[in-house]
Each structure stands twice: as structure tokens, then as C-alpha cells.
Amino acid sequence: MRNTGALAVTTPTDREIRMTRDFDAPRHLVFEALTRPELLRRWFGPRGYELVECEIDLRVGGTWRYLVRAPDGSEMRLRGVYREVVRPERLVSTEANEDCDAENGAVSTATTVLVERDSRTAMTMTMTYPSQEIRDAVLRSGMEHGVAEGYDQLAEVLAEAAVDNGVVHR
After folding, report:
1. What does the buried/exposed string (b/e) look like for 76-115 if buried means 16 or more CB atoms within 10 Å of the residue's CB?
2. In this structure, is residue 1 part of a structural domain?
3. CATH of the domain at 135
4. Neighbours of 153 (CB within 10 A)
């Protein structure tokens, strides 16, 4: 599992991780792939991981919850609350690992912005953490590589969705 370079990761402040990636698909398709459980199950997480449960109540104040299973059988439970939903350009939600983050105050905020140009979409996700220590622990965890692999799979799903919708990719 590694970042092949398609995902750019920066740390604009001492509490933020910013990830950017371009997709060869219009933003309404990218938005759908980020918010529809049947699509998320096809790409979320590194290769070999499975999104076993995916619940989404896509509205301000609505919740989301994922159960991710690793190839070794270990599981990670993620959850959050939508703070902003602007279809198809912006999502803001909290994010916490149910197994540990809520107890230690590590609830983060994820802001995803989608910008379309010529039927391509630039996605920028900014994760804001309660402290630099938590942000740095996330960076050390290898999260970048898992996200990169997931986004590589997202690009594959988007290519299939575009074909299904009659969009021709070049």
C-alpha cells in the first residue's frame, strides 16, 4: 500500500492535513461516489479492505457510520455528523474512530470541496484535528497511503459510472 503520487498531501497549518486529487469525471459523479453507500462500498479504504457497513443520512445534522474490515479481520468503526451539505460541491462533517477517538477528544472535521473544469473534478479534503499531536499521529499511521489507494479505486469506480451514464472519457 503506497501513494503513487496522484494524491497530494500537505500540512497547511499545525492542525490540518490537506489532500488533493483530480478525477476524470464530472463533480456530480464524484459527489455521488462520496455519498451513496452502494458506491462507497466499491472504493472506500485500501485494496483488500471491505466497507462492511455504510449508513448515511445526507443532511445537515444527519449522521454517517462506516465499519471497515481489514484483510486480517480487524475492524475500524468511523462515524460523524454532517455540518454542511451543498450538492454537488461541498461536504463538511465531523469524523471520529468509534473505538478510540471520542474517548480521547480526537474528533476531527473533514471539509471536502469539489471543483469541476472541463468534465474533470479537483477534490480537496481538509482534515482539521484538535491538536498538532493528533494530526501528527494520524500522519504517522500511514493514513496517506490508505487514502491514496482508496482514491485510486474511486477513480476506477468513476470511470465505470461515467461509462454507465454515457460519458466518454479521454
Report:
1. ebbbbbbeebeebeebbbbbbbeeebeeeebbbbbbbbbe
2. no
3. 3.30.530.20
4. 17
Residue 169 inside a domain? The answer is no
Q: The domain containing residue 88 runs over which residues?
A: 8-164
24 or 4: whose pLDDT is higher? 24
Q: pTM for the complete prediction?
A: 0.89
68 located within any domain: yes
Q: Give the SS3 label for residue 27.
A: helix
Portion of the chain with pLDDT greater than 90, in percent? 80
> Total structural domains in the chain?
1
Helices 143-164, 27-35: axis angle to 10 degrees equals 120
Q: Is residue 124 part of a domain?
A: yes
Tell me the C-alpha distance between 149 and 143, whole Å.
Answer: 10
Kindly report, residue by residue over 66-105, the tens digit of the pLDDT.
Answer: 999 999 999 999 999 999 999 999 999 999 988 775 555 5
Helix (H, G, I), strand (E, B) or coil at 138: helix
Number of C-beta neighbours around residue 160 at 10 A: 11
- CB–CB of 92/82 below 8 Å? yes
Q: Which residues of 124-150 are buried (b: 16+ CB within 10 A; e: fewer)?
A: ebbbbbeeeebbeebeeeeebbbbbbb
